[in-house]
């Protein structure tokens, strides 16, 4: 049975106001909103397209990083935080 859990490095990156471009993970989707707090890619082509787009749009990239930090600093509902543990 697979275990799904958001990577702690992602949470640290968000807290440090880093722009996060991550693969689609169930727990990440439960904690963060794609396009608002971070950006999710689906495959290699999607990753390359999004890298090119966000390199060309630094203000949008900075806004997403800032919103990600605010989300990382906010309390995470226990139901979301514990979801990964219950699925293991």
- Pick out the low-confidence regions: 78-88
Strand elements, count: 2
Strand arrangement across the biggest beta sheet: 1-2
Q: How far from one another are the termini?
A: 7 Å
Task: Describe this protein with a few key phrases.
88 residues; two-stranded parallel ribbon; single chain; 60% helix; disordered C terminus; mainly alpha; 2 strands
Give an account of the 3D structure.
It is a single chain. With about 90 residues, this protein is mostly helical. It has one domain. It is about 60% helix and about 5% strand. The chain has five helices and two strands, in the order αβαβααα. Strands 1-2 form a two-stranded parallel sheet. α2 links the parallel β1 (about 20-25) and β2 (about 40). It is globular.
Give the topology, please.
Blueprint: H1 8-15, E1 21-23, H2 26-31, E2 39-41, H3 44-56, H4 58-73, H5 78-87
Parallel strand pairs: 1-2
Helix pairs in contact: 1-4
Q: Could you provide a short overview of the structure?
A:
This protein is mainly alpha-helical and 88 residues long. The protein has five helices and two strands.
């Amino acid at each position: 049975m697979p275990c799904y859990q958001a990577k702690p490095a992602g949470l640290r990156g968000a807290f440090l106001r880093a722009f996060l471009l991550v693969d689609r993970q169930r727990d990440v989707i439960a904690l963060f909103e794609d396009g608002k707090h971070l950006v999710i890619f689906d495959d290699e082509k999607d990753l390359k397209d999004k890298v090119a787009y966000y390199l060309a749009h630094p203000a949008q990239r900075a806004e997403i990083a800032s919103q990600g930090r605010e989300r990382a600093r906010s309390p995470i509902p226990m139901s979301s935080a514990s979801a990964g543990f219950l699925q293991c």
